[in-house]
Amino acid sequence: MAILFHSVRLDAEKCQGCTNCIKRCPTQAIRVRNKKAYIISDRCIDCGECIRVCPHHAKYAVSEPFNELLKYKYRIALPAPALYGQFNNLENVDYVLTGLKKMGFDDVTEVSKGAELISAATRVMMESGELQKPVISSACPAVLRLIRTRFPNLIKNLLPMCAPVDLAAKIARKKAAETTGYKEDEIGVFFITPCPAKRTAIRNPLCHESDGISGAIAIKDIYPVLVQTMDRLTSEEIEPINDSGIIGVGWASSGGEAAGLLKERYLAADGIENVINVLEELEDEKLNDLDFIELNCCTGGCVGGVLTVENPYVAKARLQRLRKFMPVSCNNLEDDFNWDEIGWTKELTPSPAMKLADNVIKAMRLMTQLREIEASLPGLDCGICGAPSCRALAEDIVRGYAEETDCVLHNIQVGGNGKGEDWLPAPFRVKVLNEDANEGGANES
Question: Of 28, 194, 232, 429, which has the fewest beta carbons less than 10 angstroms from its beta carbon?
């Protein structure tokens, strides 16, 4: 199997083997063995949920260092609209955009500009009747990988369009090439990202060959320097760069993309558990009356990404205030709009990560063994064995990665048969109060 790039990493020295992460991973990509967690590469979707829940900070995300800009003669920043929600009392987006230029970028292209164009294109495609409804947004790269891994039957419902940042990168590169004359490899385009999944999507694109993005810099890494730079700006230095409105900036929080379609029959869900619940109901054909479904793995939408610095609800409230002073939209499709720039160039195929075997007969045989082993386990899904559930342990056993003896409770059940409680250590024996005890107190037996 090919080696995959992942932005989410594990610091084994900090890991205490506490099993918090295995219970929250949406694709069951984490196991704890020998008191240390490890990540199953082909199952990880880089959603960052393990980073969010790890109490020991053993999970972390990698992104490009700021000095990566020095490799290029011309540098372009692609700020996610979630970046605007990180600043208190922000009334003019141009303060942020000008601050980025003062930090060392030669130009700035807003991702929210690309979002408005994607919204406009989606409205056209929805009206054409060519899409299978309910249409599922493909903007969140973690959701895209989640569907590919756990819900492959829903691939046909995905919107076959690139993400706003990909379109913004193409616009930025085209503009830079025309105005500067620099070659492609001399132009660096950097996404200011709120989540690790997008950096993974840049390095391992699923639905196209390349999106033209040179790298991704975490919001939390650029924020301290950007704040200081903005504090030093005078009103005379502010450049009129902002080129997006309510629809584009709205993509930063849950429901923004769906609202931009100007339709009523839509659903927007955020948070990995809620996303999974919606996808399960969609598989069961319970949501067929909807036109569009927007899903964001992070709580609150992109403002809740693990690479941000502000509470997602605070950031969302700030964006709502900021949008009051904006036009509805600054970008519409021109007559010569190139539809090839936004469409997928590769077919999205299911991930084989969940397969027991490529051969159908062998897979069925292993599934039978899996169910028999699962039936013999306690069914408590306690995680003590290092797997997230009894079913996951049974799967590991049939794959040859674990043994039934890894289940502590299973061992107790087997070892205690016919022995009552006497074989258990004293602290674990059940204390029964004799209700018919004599006066003077109940007797323990």
Answer: 232
